[in-house]
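Private note to self, pasted from the team thread so I don't lose it. Backbone tokens:
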């Protein structure tokens, strides 16, 4: 097991304070997929983003990261952080002044790579402000950001890419350690499952620094879920990984839902709504796919510790779903709603959603 020190984020303004590493539970992160500068000129746009973030939070998201490519984006993130209790992370590359601007607000964490921020005095300026504000840092390393000497050793076969990632992260960590700053998290990400696993294993064997785990550029929905599940399950089984992000060419909602299910199935998160649904087949009597399209996000956002079964026909209806707190199935133009394996109502397809919601909320 990888026992780490604890890093704290948040706590300023409305932002809730939470721990990463130590005895804190594994947290879920996602990254915002769009620019946010419009909120500087449009209050409705600001409220819309806040609403969408609240939905992500209800699905199980603990932390949201935002790209900050320019000063206008930094201004927008400072404004956004005032409007939410969700810890927000500023993702900074190259320009340390963007980090300093974000640190004027209540941003909870700064993601930097000290190697591309520039001279040591710039890193020192960011660290000094983080110390003053009580803000954590994440050192982010990926296969495209290896320093020239380590990249050369990888090309020459003296190091594997996983070892290159781990050595780069260790070098960057030493910079922060030398400045007397220990409130930082490290991430080493590759698009390869094995390289991600190997780099994190190597780093964890040598340091007690909390790890943010992710497979970068994992791909579209199906491929990305497969890669992330394989990497996370291996590492989490060994106690490696304190906060995770599933990187998908898909919505933040799907990133959060995937991470939530991985943590549930690996025993690192419990409670909430668990959905059991059949894949559908030629016996199909109830349109499981359409129902799940309408209901998945709403179900997963509920503050209930229940199991919901969505079954396609009478063969796998109340019988196979008898363990569920509530379930739905159907045949022909009739839909059956059951609780704990016993039918409670049979209704028309047109009124099924209304009746299901009423029965659900009565639990």
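Design output:
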């Amino acid at each position: 097991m990888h026992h780490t020190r604890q890093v704290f984020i948040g706590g300023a303004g409305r932002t809730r304070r939470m721990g990463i590493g130590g005895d804190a539970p594994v947290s879920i992160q996602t990254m915002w997929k769009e620019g946010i500068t419009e909120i500087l000129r449009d209050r409705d746009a600001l409220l819309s983003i806040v609403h969408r973030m609240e939905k992500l939070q209800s699905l199980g998201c603990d932390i949201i990261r935002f790209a900050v490519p320019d000063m206008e984006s930094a201004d927008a993130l400072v404004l956004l952080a005032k409007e939410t209790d969700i810890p927000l992370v500023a993702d900074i590359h190259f320009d340390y002044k963007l980090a300093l601007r974000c640190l004027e607000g209540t941003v909870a964490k700064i993601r930097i790579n000290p190697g591309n921020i520039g001279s040591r005095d710039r890193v020192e300026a960011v660290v000094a402000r983080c110390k003053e504000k009580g803000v954590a840092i994440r050192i982010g390393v990926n296969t495209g950001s290896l320093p020239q000497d380590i990249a050369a050793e990888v090309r020459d076969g003296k190091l594997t890419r996983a070892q290159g990632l781990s050595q780069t992260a260790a070098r960057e960590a030493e910079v922060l350690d030398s400045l007397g700053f220990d409130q930082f998290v490290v991430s080493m990400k590759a698009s390869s499952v094995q390289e991600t696993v190997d780099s994190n294993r190597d780093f964890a064997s040598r340091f007690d620094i909390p790890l943010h785990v992710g497979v970068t550029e994992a791909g579209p929905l199906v491929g990305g879920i497969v890669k992330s599940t394989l990497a996370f399950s291996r590492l989490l089984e060994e106690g490696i990984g304190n906060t995770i992000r599933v990187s998908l060419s898909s919505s933040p909602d799907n990133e959060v839902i995937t991470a939530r299910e991985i943590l549930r199935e690996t025993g690192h998160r419990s409670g909430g709504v668990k959905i059991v649904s059949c894949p559908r087949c030629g016996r199909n009597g109830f349109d499981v796919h359409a129902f799940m399209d309408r209901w998945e996000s709403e179900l997963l956002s509920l503050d209930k510790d229940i199991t919901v079964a969505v079954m396609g026909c009478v063969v796998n209806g109340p019988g196979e779903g008898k363990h569920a707190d509530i379930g739905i199935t159907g045949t022909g133009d009739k839909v059956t709603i059951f609780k704990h394996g016993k039918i409670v109502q049979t209704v028309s397809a047109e009124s099924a959603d209304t009746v299901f919601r009423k029965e659900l909320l009565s639990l």
